[in-house]
Amino acid sequence: MIRYSFILLSLILSAFIGSTQTLQKNLALIPIPVECKMASGNFTISNATQIFISNPIFEKEIVYFQNYLKSNYQISPLWVKKAPIKNSSYIEVRFGVFKDTIEGQYRLNINSNKIIIEASEASGVFYALQSLIQLLPVNGKVSLAVPCLAIEDFPRYKWRGMHLDCSRHFFSTAFVKKYIEMMASYKMNVFHWHLTDDQGWRIEIKHYPMLTEVGAWRKGSMVGPYADQKFDSIPYGGFYTQEEIKDIVEYASMLHVTIVPEIEMPGHALAALAAYPEFSCSGNPCEVGMKWGVETNVFCPAEHTFTFLDDVLSEVASLFPGKYIHIGGDEVLKDEWEKSPFCQQIMQNNGFKNYNELQSFFIKRIEYIVRIKGKSIIGWDEILDGGLAPNAAVMSWRGIEGGIAAAKQNHDVVMTPGAFCYFDHYQADPKTEPLAIGGFTTLEKVYSYEPTPDSLSVEEAKHIMGAQGNVWTEYMYNSDQVEYMAMPRMAALAEIVWVPKEKKNYQNFYQRLSLHRKLLDRKGIKYAKSAFGK
Ligand code: ACM
Description:
The protein is an alpha/beta fold. It has helices at 2-26, 59-73, 122-135, 173-185, 210-213, 242-254, 270-275, 303-319, 335-339, 341-350, 355-372, 401-408, 418-421, 443-447, 458-461, 479-486, 489-498, 506-523; strands at 35-45, 50-53, 78-80, 90-95, 106-110, 114-119, 144-153, 159-165, 190-194, 196-197, 200-201, 217-218, 222-223, 230-231, 236-237, 258-265, 324-328, 376-380, 393-396, 413-415, 464-469.
């Protein structure tokens, strides 16, 4: 009898779990919530719905939601300042209490006559509203039915990042905002803005106007595959003024996205040196790069260069309120340093045995400059070579080894290994895809990525802040192409950095994504249809 009851109980339970999974599969929620219990019935959002918040810290989020409903569905629920009128259907946002609150945590309860959102921080309310937005019928009008359910949700990692290279190709402020909005809709929260490189300096620096007057413009660009070495002679460029940057920073903050600006040094500095050649060791005049790849023109580790970079970083630090400034540090060719008597003197004075130690000397100096401004540096994993600067966080891109080494030295890490997180790679058969840099990183491969390496102890693993997708734009000539390369791989990465490891399930993700696609179509996002086999 006991055995029989057990079997019956298991059958009921598995039917329940089965139906929960089926229903979740039928909801276009990405990332999938940590817990989602379906109930029967719907709540209908219409002009008659009332919105009530019991805490003013959530007001901005409600303004965002109201604007979303108005611009996408022409629906304007009434925001009531006192408790909702009896017998009407309403959405209430409350301050919520959680055991061990995690930044971004929320509860979303949808009943047939009310929706209750609970969070202890504004970001939690924002994420609850993103889930609610994903539940709205894509083609609804006048009244929008959402299914009754109960969600408990919180992120796995605190760094859920996307990068965009605005140097190789320049993108409008409107597109940068669209990209940030796309990220935020998947609950991603760090935008790594690659603002300087050999082929263009894109941020206005008031102390050094030539950085943009000269450094933001190149005489032409490489066309076609790298191997062809062909160039056009069409002048190309652009930059963001400080006013535009402030506006984007404010916009991102409304979407709970922190911007990490990247100012490349000591390598990838050709555009800066075209403007101010005196900051290289040779001092030779040079031009903004037209060719993709890595250049030998690098900053010289001299006092006047550090003064220049200090001034630049002061302006950068005052524009971006986040903790981190990304200082690059990758792919530093040492040719000029090797030829420079000045560098040899520093090597000798400090007893350096190789040029990686000189690179480390450079980064340590910059780390100090940035720290004095109340910020921290993050750099590509080459900053480990020759010795890591104190307090530096590491972005592991050449694989996962840099991330492992940094975590073992008690430094914070963002994982972005090329094989999984470089969205400039091909995502389907190159013969059928637009020209890309190379590589092969399918949607499924992105989804298969596990950011915390097995080889770390529990304590070391705490240094893995999260993961990030990188969009290098050598072969992305316009914003449509960026959307094509970023989506839907961004959605796969967003799920990896949000959901608990044991909840990852590619088939289930793919089914949800196939439904979610309708929303992308509605928004006019030019995602890669090849990710869906067509
Ligand atoms: C990089 O891809 N050079 C960081």
